[in-house]
């Protein structure tokens, strides 16, 4: 019989890990919700965020430098990727998928060339532990939870209460309609890619600091992002957050109550079930409310 201590541990751990999952998936769904294309370089952007922080540590820039590098470099990369390649192929979603997949492979192979296949430890963002309901957790997990929800809240406020944010909403609803009222879709798409890149970079920072960074770390995160986005509804930020928590809680419960070898299986199981029962996802295709 499972005691209350185990249940409380699972709930707290799942809440914190799911916040990271939401952060991982939001950039992926943001690009699709606004631009209508799938960015298969999303996982590589997460990897780039982790290694940007790693190199910042190697150059002695400390935690502030690692945080800054993990945000700015992936954001700039995403912006350049959009301007240099994706913008020319916006009307051909299949070509965007192929192009971003190729870019992802190039990034991974570049990391293998320069760093090899050995995992790298990032500079510790925050040390120490805290206790909740008799269970002890890393302060890093608590920071992940707080920062993730802070960023999600800021994104919501930005989208709903700023001029640029309302432009993002307009483009997500109709590119033609937005252009008729003077909104430049290309500018909005660029901003969206930069924001998505920054979110992916921060996710990579936390993921690499919590575990380690390696050339292939983004592959699992791309699958996770896709699973979360499909479950929540492609293009729905609210759906991505709820999907992240659904998958996160199921994964943590499975690994704690059944077997740790089943980690990573939960997203795929939920994905298959949702595709069979509700193919449009929990919230269909929307951007925000």
UniProtKB/TrEMBL annotation:
It comes from the Archaea. CDD domains: TM_PBP1_LivH_like. Keywords: Amino-acid transport, Cell membrane, Membrane, Transmembrane, Transmembrane helix, Transport. GO terms for molecular function: transmembrane transporter activity. One of its GO terms (cellular component) is plasma membrane. InterPro entries: ABC_transp_permease (IPR001851), BCAA_transport_permease (IPR052157). It holds the Pfam family BPD_transp_2. The keyword Kinase does not apply. GO terms for biological process: amino acid transport. The keyword Endoplasmic reticulum does not apply. The chain crosses the membrane at residues 6-30, 37-57, 63-83, 95-114, 140-159, 190-211, 223-250, 257-277. It is a multi-pass membrane protein. It is found in: Cell membrane. Belongs to the binding-protein-dependent transport system permease family. LivHM subfamily. This is Amino acid/amide ABC transporter membrane protein 1, HAAT family. It comes from Halorientalis persicus.
């Amino acid at each position: 019989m499972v005691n209350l201590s185990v249940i409380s541990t699972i709930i707290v751990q799942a809440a914190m890990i799911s916040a990271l999952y939401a952060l991982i998936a939001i950039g992926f769904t943001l690009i699709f919700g606004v631009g209508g294309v799938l960015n298969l370089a999303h996982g590589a952007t997460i990897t780039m965020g982790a290694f940007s922080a790693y190199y910042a540590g190697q150059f002695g820039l400390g935690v502030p430098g690692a945080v800054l590098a993990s945000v700015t470099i992936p954001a700039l990369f995403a912006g350049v990727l959009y301007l240099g390649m994706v913008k020319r192929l916006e009307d051909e979603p299949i070509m965007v998928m192929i192009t971003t997949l190729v870019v992802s492979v190039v990034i991974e192979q570049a990391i293998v060339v320069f760093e090899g296949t050995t995992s790298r430890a990032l500079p510790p963002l925050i040390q120490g532990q805290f206790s909740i309901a008799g269970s002890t957790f890393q302060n890093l997990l608590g920071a992940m939870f707080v920062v993730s929800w802070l960023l999600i809240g800021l994104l919501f406020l930005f989208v709903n209460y700023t001029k640029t944010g309302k432009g993002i909403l307009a483009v997500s609803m109709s590119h033609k309609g937005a252009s008729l009222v003077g909104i430049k879709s290309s500018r909005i798409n660029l901003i969206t890619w930069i924001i998505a890149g920054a979110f992916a970079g921060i996710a990579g920072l936390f993921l690499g600091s919590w575990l380690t960074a390696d050339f292939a770390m983004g592959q699992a995160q791309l699958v996770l992002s896709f699973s979360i986005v499909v479950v929540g509804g492609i293009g729905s930020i609210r759906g991505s957050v709820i999907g992240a928590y659904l998958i996160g809680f199921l994964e943590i419960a499975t690994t704690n109550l059944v077997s740790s070898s089943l980690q990573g299986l939960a997203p795929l199981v939920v994905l298959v079930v949702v595709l069979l029962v509700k193919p449009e996802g929990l919230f269909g295709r929307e951007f925000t409310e």
